[in-house]
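Supplementary Note 3. Input sequence used for the single-chain structure prediction.
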Amino acid sequence: MNKLTSMWRGLQSAGSRLFSTRPAETSLGAAGRSACATTLAIFLAFTPLFAQDQDQHKLPRLNFPVNLQNSQRAHDLIRAGNLYLSLQDALALAIENNLDIELQRFAFPTGDSELLRSQGGGTLRGLNFTLAEVPTGVGGPLSPVETGVAVAGQAATGVTVASSATELGVLGAPQDNLSIQGTVPQSNGAAVPSFDPAVIGLLNFTHQSTPETDIQSYGTNALVTNTTTANGGISSGFSTGGTASLTFNNAHTNWNATTSGFNPFNGSSLGLTVTQPLLRGFGNALNRRFIRIASNERKISGLLFQQQLINTIYGVVRLYTDYVALYEDEKVKQETLTLAEKLLADTQAQVEIGTLAVIELTRANAQVASAELALINARGLREEEEAIVKSVLTRRNDDPEIRNARLIPTDTLSVPELDELRPIQDSMADALNNRPDLAQAQLQVQNSQIGLAGSRSATLPEVDLVGVVQNNGLAGTTSPTLPNGYSGFTGGYGTALEELFARNYPTYGVGLQVTLPIHNRVAEADLARDEIQVKQQQVRVAQLQNQARLEVEDAVIAMRRARASYQAAVQARRLQQESLEAEQAKFEIGTSTSFFVIQYQSLLAQAKSTEIAAQSSYVKARAALQRATGSILDRNHISLDNAIKGKM
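The predicted structure, written as discrete structure tokens, is reproduced below.
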């Protein structure tokens, strides 16, 4: 209180010094100087008064520049022309370089700008709920579980191990848009006044010549008026729905009228007008609804970034796992080709000495051609996957050093002895509690429910309480038409101000302004539509929750399938290993041929490839479960704060 009193006295003192240096013809007495000082104090004091209803919020700032260069980590991992990459390296590169994540970082300043706009009394522009999914890639190798025996002229058969996310049934529908609003936006409802104070000023000179038909009115048949106007004011709205404006108007008039008592003369007025709605648009909660919605949108911005991060991390885990499997599969195909070439050489030697028929040479050549085709296909799939991985982990894919580097995975695939699975009901509960897409959907429903207050208010009648308080002052140079000795209104601008603040000529009033719509069908239709949309959003949230539970269940089932495939692949690999050892023993005592030995070597190589495919299926199913339950960031030791900053 003492601080406010000191400030008020300081303002009055400044006003007194300002007006104490006027020329004599317009100089003020003690009362005039006090009045002018009070005028200045009122204007300066009303500015924080009008602003006191405002929320203080800084302009949104981008704390990071637009950077389209690859991070240094991408170059540091290259050695001798090879890009050596672990899974953690891949995740770090994605956080630093992935453009989907980079785009979503702009959601934070966007949310700040929404809050800033709402604090000024503006309606909201909305958020972009569109997210991106990482490309699916080419998938892992398709490998059968080989349990047959080597038979000349007969291809081995087996059950194929599912390796892609689609085959595993865990990819789910792409989450490309998390908005549950639908295509029709909610109505704005009752208008919110502008909370930002506005200072209004006018300085104008007018010269006007008017022909007069009644010469007695002004004593001339052509009235010439010169008017200088200098007006100022400040206005603002408040969260109650009311508006207030303080205006200070001044006019200096000089004309050629001979019948006027004063010429020239000055007129001044100082008035305050307050309008407060009593029904439509009334209430602090109603008029601050966009601020509450914008506050939720800032939370949604963070949740959208977190969901995009989850999408990208899951995609990188899946792509890296597939690449490891394809990389190992290419080795298997190369080993198979090497064995086929050895078989061709042995067969050719035996044909030349006559111990084998020529048809066996043709068969060996066909096996080499088949092995070469398998290797070319495997290498092509690996190269396609490599290009996709690089595009996801870099900002620019035209960097020659990175483009020409061959990707060498440094992590291997493994399946734990036991699955770390919680009861499925607990996993579903984790999903409902942890997933950011479900959390932001709930906030969207909450925002729509907040917005309903505006729709309901718009259906009410307009009943406004209007109050006006104004003081007036007039002074001028007396004309000969006035009686001798008359001194009223005589003086300069200072005299007009003295009269103004002496409240000799006050004007005040209070009243009700009522608008009663006979039938407000537009507002009623908007309210009905908005209520329907809120109910639809609640249904959509239930759909999302059901989808989350289904994704958890699908991922658990996929893990069981992948483990079963892995166990079958392990047994098949053991079978082929033992079969090869047995065939080699028979070959050593002369009861078998090199053809069957090489065939079993090929079957063993294929069994190893199948085991790799089964391992990759399990790793991807486990990642899908982590994504479905919202725990994939924690499981990969990723800090959300560091991800926002672009650092692993």
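The two ends are 52 Å apart (CA to CA). Residues 72-190+287-452+525-645 form a domain with the Outer membrane efflux proteins (OEP) fold (CATH 1.20.1600.10).
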